[in-house]
């Protein structure tokens, strides 16, 4: 099982490579929409990418509650637990 730090690092890599977000902006408290300027289409793309990592689908209702990087890591942890 991946550690929390490994999940954070993987998520950071995706955000930098796929969404061209500056790595310095990616913190646990960063808001996906307000701080990182993701939109709803980006969020869907992110869910698809996370599915390839976890091998499981994040439920749309669960992802609607996600606001920060930390929230995403929490959802990833639940999926791989």
TrEMBL record:
Protein localization: Cytoplasm
Residues with O-(pantetheine 4'-phosphoryl)serine modification: 40
Post-translational changes noted in the entry: 4'-phosphopantetheine is transferred from CoA to a specific serine of apo-ACP by AcpS. This modification is essential for activity because fatty acids are bound in thioester linkage to the sulfhydryl of the prosthetic group.
Pfam family, one: PP-binding
InterPro entries in alphabetical order: ACP, PP-bd_ACP
Keyword tags: Cytoplasm, Fatty acid biosynthesis, Fatty acid metabolism, Lipid biosynthesis, Lipid metabolism, Phosphopantetheine, Phosphoprotein
Domain Carrier: 5-80
UniProt pathway: Lipid metabolism; fatty acid biosynthesis
Role according to the record: Carrier of the growing fatty acid chain in fatty acid biosynthesis.
Family membership noted in the UniProt record: Belongs to the acyl carrier protein (ACP) family.
HAMAP family named among the record's database cross-references: Acyl_carrier
Protein name as catalogued: Acyl carrier protein
Source organism of the structure: Colwellia asteriadis
Gene for this chain: acpP
